[in-house]
């Protein structure tokens, strides 16, 4: 498992939200990039109401899922097109557990928080009608990450899963149709979930 590219915003481009601009246009960076608690050095967030913050410090997307989309759409899905900061190779992001911890390179550690929820900016970026619904239906969302240990990362760095919490709820399940009983077990596991995931898990668990 390794990091293929590290991507930060190339330039702010027009977007469909009231902010007027979006930082979704990410491009690969040479050398090593500093990782802080709020993300990558040189990156930015325009819609701070809905994006960014410690629990969305980084967005990771798997090369395997990008290749699947490339075949599905009959077009290239270059790294950064989906607005991801990290493009990974050999890592099952959809199957990652909520609260799972990865080490990237020698010193950076990140925690899987929750799946990426597609928005109108993403649909505008892709230029595909009903893209939000289609992206959701296919269940390959990528994941937002919280930075636990800062440092630098670069293309080619190894990725190691160093902790798996004591539950079975994955990124893909949360993105799709989470089971109430499994969500309750996740809450009971004592895993570090973050406020947004705890709120969601409680709502789903209450349906049981």
Offer a concise description of the structure.
This is MOSC domain-containing protein YiiM. With 208 residues, this protein is of the alpha+beta class.
Task: Jot down its keywords.
three-stranded antiparallel sheet; MoCF_Sase_C; Pyrv_Knase-like_insert_dom_sf; M1 Pyruvate Kinase, Domain 3; 208 residues; 25% helix; MOSC domain-containing protein YiiM; catalytic activity
Structure characterization notes:
- The chain is an alpha+beta fold.
- It has a single domain, classed as PK beta-barrel domain-like (M1 Pyruvate Kinase, Domain 3).
- 25% of the residues lie in helices and 28% in strands.
- It has helices at 63-73, 120-126, 131-138, 171-175, 180-188, 195-205, and strands at residues 2-9, 13-14, 21-22, 26-28, 32-36, 39-40, 58-62, 86-89, 101-104, 108-115, 143-149, 151-154, 159-163.
- The strands form three sheets. The chain has an eight-stranded mixed beta sheet. Strands 6-5-12 form a three-stranded antiparallel beta sheet, with no helix packed on it. A two-stranded antiparallel sheet has the order 2-3.
- A hairpin with a 3-residue loop joins β9 and β10 (108-115).
- α5 (180-188) crosses α6 (195-205).
- The longest helix has 11 residues, at 63-73.
- It starts with a strand and ends with a helix.
**Shape by Cα distribution:** globular
Structural class: alpha+beta
The helix/strand series, from N terminus to C terminus, equals EEEEEEEHEEEHHEEEHHH
Rg value: 16 Å
